[in-house]
Design brief:
Length: 317
């Protein structure tokens, strides 16, 4: 098992290096840079040269990438924003706090709800309950996030005036100030993430309930709900763990569209702004953070699968 963990860690490190290299290369290939974006029509002559010299953009791309990578590895320093001239660590930290508030709230609501509905749909297979839950899940999965968000804004913000349509709170405001503004984004995220987990739990639960050991437990007179929650559900959760881990990673790193629609000051909106400004160190830093979250979630999912399934642990060990 130790060998497997080490292999996963090495693969995770190589993945992060590959992501950073790819993001740097793609961003570097874009036309213009932070100076042309900042100066606009005045991006020419001595003014443009001075701007690039001050921000060390006159150095070779490989040298800039190596300097940035060395700072990350040796000191955990993500560098400074070329556009804002601020510490990227502080910028990413404040925005990540806001995204974590949004994602954590959605996960705490969506994951238990998805598991419960998935179990209910499996136990009521092919009945009205199952058809209703499965149909709702399909709609939630097929509708793009921005469509769901727009519909929620129209109903609850414009028609009913229950919640604000967009976030007007500053990114460094206290977390309590965000609470009225996260309701609609959380509902949107919950609908999308719950649908995927629900479908996986339903499918796995149907397979487990039809297995030999469940039928044997029923013949022995084990109470039905004890079979469901004590024996069947833990086994059904094994294939769902990876989906849940990927969903959590998506919540933390893939809420760009939701944050844009609701003008939410999270890591996604900061990423879009950094790309628009050609702020390469900031783009690179956010990509590294999001990739680390994604890789870490996958690693935790693998370890959880090994912990819950002794046979899998023995086979791999």
């Amino acid at each position: 098992m130790l060998k497997l963990i080490l292999n996963r860690l090495v693969l995770a490190i190589l993945t992060l290096v590959a992501v950073c290299t790819l993001v740097f290369g793609v961003t570097e290939a874009l036309p213009g840079d932070v100076c042309t974006a900042f100066l606009g029509r005045n991006a020419q002559g001595v003014r443009l040269e001075n701007c690039r010299t001050q921000r060390e953009l006159d150095k070779p791309a490989i040298e800039r990438f190596a300097t940035w990578g060395y700072g990350v590895v040796t000191a955990g320093d993500l560098g400074r924003s070329l556009k804002r001239n601020k510490s990227i660590n502080k910028m990413v930290g404040s925005r990540m706090r806001n995204t974590l508030l949004l994602a954590t709230t959605a996960a705490l609501i969506g994951i238990p709800l998805a598991i419960l509905l998935g179990v209910l749909a499996a136990l009521r297979r092919d009945r009205r309950t199952d058809v209703g839950i499965s149909t709702g899940a399909i709609f939630a999965m097929t509708l793009p996030e921005f469509v769901t968000a727009t519909l929620l804004i129209y109903v609850f913000a414009i028609q009913l005036h229950w919640f604000p349509a967009v976030t007007t709170v500053r990114h460094n405001a206290p977390l309590l100030d965000f609470l009225p503004n996260i309701v609609l984004p959380v509902i949107t995220l919950t609908l999308v993430m719950s649908a995927h987990i629900l479908r996986m739990v339903r499918s796995a639960m149907i397979d487990v309930m039809a297995s030999d050991f469940v039928q044997m437990a029923q013949l022995k007179g084990v109470p039905y709900w004890r079979i469901v929650f004590r024996h069947a559900l833990p086994n059904a959760m094994l294939p769902a763990i990876n989906i849940i881990a990927l969903t959590i990673a998506w919540l933390l790193g893939g809420v760009v569209i939701i944050e844009q629609v609701f003008n939410y000051p999270g890591i996604g909106t900061l990423m879009i702004s950094a790309i628009y400004d050609r702020d390469l160190p900031l783009v690179q830093a956010i990509a590294l953070v999001l990739a680390a979250i994604y890789v870490g979630a996958n690693l935790l999912a693998d370890l959880a699968s090994l912990a819950l399934n002794p046979r899998l642990r023995t086979a791999r060990g």
